[in-house]
Structure formats: structure tokens, C-alpha cells
Amino acid sequence: MKNTFVISCPIDCYSGYSARSRDLVKAIIDLDRYDVKILPQRWGSTPWGFIEDNPEWEFLRKHIIHNVTEQPDIWAQVTIPSEFQPIGKYNIGFTAGIESTVCAPDWIEGLNKMDVTFVSSNHSKKVFETVGFDKKDEKTGQLIGKISLQKPVEVLFEGVNIDTYRPLKDTERSSINLSDMKESFAFLHCGMWLPGDIGEDRKNIGMLIKVFYETFKNRTKKPALLLKVNQGTSSYMGREAILKKIEAIKKTVRAKNLPNVYLLNGDLTDTEMNELYNHPKVKAMVSLTRGEGFGRPLLEFTTSQKPLLTTNWSGQTDFLDPQMTSLIGGELTHVHPSAANKWLLKEGQWMRVDYPQAGAHMRDMFEKYKPYKEKAKRQAYKSRTEFSWEAMRDQLGERFESLIPEIAKQVKLKLPKLKKIELPKLKKV
């Protein structure tokens, strides 16, 4: 009899954590060692209904449950560490990790509740293992101890599905309609426009737009910038809010002639995302991100064999080779209060890229594309061989085999039916 493996995760949402959840669940099922059950959870305000939109994931439905009635042998959660709760006989946490140099104290406390936690990058592992906090009495404020990591943290990269994310064949055409884009060369950026002032949001989308404008202003021949961006939902109001932000940035640039920025706002399936990456007008991806737990879209894009320009810091450096991609340097700066929250602390630091260097890279890539394209082919091979979903599944299986103990099943005894025995009647002597 197989051990029960219950995993609580945002299996049916549109988000990076949700994509990670589906890949993990598929891998655990594929190992064929456990009786796998999925307890679906929401992920913030991200849309629901991914499985219905993507029939290839329909097989997950038969594993879905809506509550846990008895203690599972193995319990796993895909979420932020502060939400970890040990419910099983053995407890596993999966989290992308942290995008800065500091995490909240309750994240460390959450990690210590689990038997082991898997993070997506060496960057996150290092942060969790090195941070420490004073623990104070809530009533008196007196120091009563230290908060530091006590349980193991393992790195498990987010593997890319190489059957889905790949260059299109000559007989295949992208279904993505970019007919309104007159330019034949577009830099693509994918991400969520998170809270923060211009240049202070984590994905750094506002500053990317400004650098793009400044780099290619007043030029006769210029590329486009295509933004596959939302604010958590793909609503009309969210789209209008993003357009207002872009217009405000545009007004800060003094020029008679500015390059075009296009907004692609809406949910796309995995197949459609690959078609976007491979669209003939999309020539490269650019991200001036301040920090990534892993950087999943960056890995996906590399399989297209097209150049990538991004920040040389945090999670993405695990899979991006500086000899095959364009990595931009910079300096660590404190998280701005406008971007800080209860998980992303203003005491932490993240990367502020060298903006002139970023602009110079974009200009050179636009003008001298061929050598960048050749390097991108080598990165694509690395991504498909070393960071595939299959490679992730195999690594997960090895880690499970060495970490998860043999869990004894509680045997339910079936007693035989007892016959009623009539005692002899006592006789009076």
C-alpha cells in the first residue's frame, strides 16, 4: 500500500507559484511512489480556471480533494513559508524563496515547522540560512532568544517543459496577433507590475520603459517594446491603470520622436506563451528585475533560441550562463518603502541595475543581432538539457528517496465475528 501524499497548492490559478505547483504535482505523480491527493488553494487575486483552459492538465482532476479528513503520511505545501503548517507525519514545504537579502522572521519560523523545505534557487537558500532575528516577548519586549533556521533547506530548480517550450517548426505559425505592431524587431518583457514607485517596483517595469525610451528616442530606425504585463488580474481596469503609468513615464522623456511601447494584457495558455516567445517580431527578451526567487519566464524564453538581457543577480543566475546571455551589473540598494510589505522588508537589499549599461546592451543587441542570436542557441541547449522538467523530476525523486523516511502505515485490524456463548445454567444443589 502506497503512502498518502497530500499537497496543498494553487493548482488551478494563473501565476508563477501555480505553474510551479502543476509541475511539482505532475512530477510526484510520475514518480509512482505515493497515493497523491491535491488540495487546491487560491493565490492572491490571480485568475482561477487554468485546468479548464488547458485540457492537457485535465488528468489532475482525479487527484483533487476538497478537505483532509485524516492525517496524511506526507503533507506538502506550495506557498510562502509564513503559511506553512505541519499536518502530516512528514511535512514538506515548497517555496520560490525571497527576492531580496532579508526575509521576515515568521518565514524562518515557518521553515522550522517543516521537516524539509525546497526552494527554487541557491540565492534563496543562502538568504534563509544566513539571516537571524532577535526573538522578543510580545508583552514585555524583552529578548528571549534568537530566530534562525533549524531545519534543512534544499534547492530544487523549476524545470521547463521542453515539449511545450521550444522553437516552432517551419510548418507551425504563431497564433499571437501582433499585426498592430509595425516594427519587425521587438523586445519582450513578461511580468506582473507590482507595487512601488517608478524604478522601485520589483520587476522594475517602469524604469525599463524609461530606459527604452531614452535609448531609442529621436532615431529613424528603432525597435518596439512589447509588454506582456498585468497587475495581478487581466481586467479592463488593470489594463487602463497600466496604460496611465506608461503615459506618465512617456511625459518624463524629452524628445520629438519616441519608440513605440505596446501592451499585451490578458491570460495566455502555455502553448500561447511559447508562440509569443517564438513570434517572428519578438527578437529578444529584456528584464531589469531587482530580484527573482527563480525567474521562470526567463528560463522559458531561453528555449526559443533568442537573446536574453537581464540582471546579473538573484535566482536567474543559477541557469543563465554569462557567456551565453547578456547579464547587467549594478549595485545593491535597500528596498524602497513604496515596494515594501510584510514579506518584502525595507531592511533588505536588492539589485539596482546600471541603467546606462542596460541601454547600451539593448542598443547593441538591436544593431548587431546575429552574434547575440548565436550565443542564445547555446543557452537554449543548456536550458533544455540541464533545466528541463524531466531533470527536475529526477532530482526530486532522488531527494525524496534520501530525505523521506519509511512511514509505517497504521494497520486497521478486522476482528472476526464473535459467536455468543451460552453459559450453562447453574443448578441448585
Q: CATH superfamily of the largest domain, please?
A: Glycogen Phosphorylase B
How many domains is the backbone divided into? 2
Distance between the termini: 60 Å
Determine the structural class based on helices, strands and strand pairing.
alpha/beta
What is the overall number of helices?
11
Order of helices and strands: EHEHEEHEHEEEEHEHEHEHEEEEHHH
Largest sheet: 6 strands, parallel
- Oligomeric state of shown chains: single chain
Enumerate the spans where pLDDT stays under 50 for 5 or more consecutive residues. 410-429
User: How confident overall, as mean pLDDT?
Assistant: 92
Per DSSP E runs of 2 or more residues, the count of β-strands stands at 16
Strand order of the largest sheet: 2-1-3-4-5-8
Cα Rg? 26 Å
CATH architecture of the largest domain: 3-Layer(aba) Sandwich
Q: What proportion of the residues is helical, as a percent range?
A: 25-40%
Strand composition percent: 15-25%
| CATH-defined topology of the largest domain | Rossmann fold
Highest-level CATH class of the largest domain? Alpha Beta
Overall morphology: globular
Strands, helices and their partners?
Elements: E1 3-9, H1 16-31, E2 34-40, H2 50-53, E3 74-78, E4 90-95, H3 105-111, E5 116-119, H4 122-130, E6 133-136, E7 143-147, E8 153-155, E9 186-192, H5 205-216, E10 224-230, H6 236-250, E11 261-264, H7 270-277, E12 282-286, H8 296-302, E13 308-311, E14 326-328, E15 330-334, E16 349-353, H9 355-367, H10 369-386, H11 389-403
Parallel strand pairs: 1-2, 1-3, 3-4, 4-5, 5-8, 9-10, 9-12, 10-11, 12-13, 13-14
Antiparallel strand pairs: 6-7, 15-16
